[in-house]
Specification:
The protein is α/β, with parallel strands linked by helices. It has a single domain, classed as Inosine-uridine Nucleoside N-ribohydrolase, Chain A (Alpha-Beta Complex). About 35% of the residues lie in helices and about 15% in strands. The protein has a 5-stranded mixed β-sheet. α5 crosses α7. The longest helix has 14 residues. The protein is globular and about 50 Å long.
Length: about 290
C-alpha cells in the first residue's frame, strides 16, 4: 500500500480490506492507519471477514496478533460505509477507462464483486494477484496463504475472462529483506512512513523456508510489477486451483511448460531483479511523509 501511495503513476481509487494474517477486525484499522501514514486521501472499504466457504484461518505468527508486529500507528480516518464488493462494482461500472484490480490478500472481495455483477468484468484491464506457487506452499505444504484462505474466490477471479498477473511464492522468495537491505531502506530517508515500514518488516520472523536470511516482501512485489515490469521475467501459463477438501486444497496448479494444452490465460512472474526492486522501494518510500 505504501509503495502504491508513493508512486504518482498509480491512481489509487480505493482500498478494500479483507482478513489477512489477522482478521478483519485488525486489518481494517491497520489499512486506515496506513492510508493516514502515507498522507493519502483514499477511501477504505470494509470487506469480507471470511472466505466464500468455510472459516477464516489466521496466521498471527507472521505479523503478531495486531497484524503490524506491535508497531503502533496513528489512527486513520473512519472507514467508508460502502462495503468492498459494492465499491468494486461501482468503480468498474462507472469508470470511463478499464481499471486494474490488485489483490494482496485472499480474493474474496474481488470474487464477490464479479459473482454478483459479472458484466463489470468487461471494464477490468487486468487483475494483479499476490497469490499462489508452482511448488511448495507456505500455509500448507501444498498451498500459499492467500490461495488457501479462499480458493473458490481465486478460481472465480481466474475464470472471469480478463488478463491475470500472478506474483507467487517463488518470485517473492527473491525479495528477501535481509538486515543489510533493511538498513539500506532506513537510510533512504527520514520519513515516518518509511521508518514504520522498516520497523514492521523487521518484526517478521525469518522463516526456515528462506534459510532464515530474512523475510520475503511479498505484497510490494505486486505493486513493483505495475511500476517496473522490466524488473521481472514472466511466463504465460494455464492455472487451476484445487478446490477439494483434502491436503492439496488451495494448491495452484501452474502449468509452466504447457503440458496440459489448456489456454495460457495467466501471466506468472518468475524472476526478479532484487537489487532493482529494493532500490525502487527505497526511492519511492522516501517520498512519503
Amino acid at each position: 500500500m505504501l509503495l502504491a501511495f508513493a508512486s504518482p503513476e498509480l491512481d489509487v481509487r480505493a482500498v478494500t480490506v479483507v482478513g489477512g494474517n489477522v482478521g478483519l477486525d485488525r486489518t481494517l484499522p491497520n489499512a486506515r492507519a496506513l492510508v493516514a501514514l502515507a498522507g493519502a486521501a483514499v477511501p477504505v472499504h470494509p470487506g469480507a471477514d471470511r472466505p466464500l466457504l468455510g472459516r477464516f484461518t489466521s496466521e498471527p505468527r507472521v505479523h503478531g496478533p495486531d497484524g503490524l508486529g506491535g508497531i503502533a500507528l496513528p489512527e486513520g480516518a473512519p472507514a467508508s460505509g460502502e462495503p468492498a464488493a459494492d465499491a468494486i462494482r461501482r468503480l468498474l461500472r462507472t469508470s470511463p477507462e478499464p481499471l486494474t484490480l490488485v489483490g494482496l490478500g485472499p480474493a474474496t472481495n474481488l470474487a464477490l464483486a464479479l459473482a454478483t455483477e459479472p458484466a463489470v468484468a468487461g471494464n477490468i484491464a487486468r487483475t494483479l494477484l499476490m497469490t499462489g506457487a508452482w511448488g511448495e506452499g507456505n500455509a500448507t505444504p501444498a498451498a500459499e496463504f492467500n490461495a488457501f484462505n479462499d480458493p473458490e474466490a481465486l478460481a472465480i477471479v481466474l475464470a472471469a475472462g480478463r488478463p491475470v498477473v500472478m506474483v507467487g511464492l517463488e518470485l517473492t522468495a527473491q525479495a528477501i529483506a535481509t538486515p543489510a537491505r533493511l538498513a539500506g531502506l532506513r537510510a533512504a530517508g527520514p520519513g515516518r512512513a518509511l521508518a514504520a515500514a522498516c520497523a514492521i518488516q523487521a518484526s517478521v520472523p525469518a522463516p526456515a523456508r528462506l534459510g532464515r536470511t530474512g523475510a520475503a516482501l511479498h505484497d510490494p512485489c505486486a505493486i513493483a510489477w505495475l511500476l517496473r515490469p522490466d524488473l521481472f521475467t514472466t511466463r504465460d501459463c494455464p492455472v487451476a486451483v484445487d478446490l477439494g477438501p483434502g491436503p492439496s486444497r488451495g494448491r495452484t496448479s501452474i502449468d509452466r511448460w504447457g503440458r496440459t494444452g489448456a489456454p495460457a490465460y495467466a501471466t506468472v512472474a518468475e524472476t526478479l531483479d532484487a537489487d532493482g526492486f529494493f532500490a525502487l522501494l527505497g526511492e519511492r518510500l522516501a517520498r512519503l511523509p
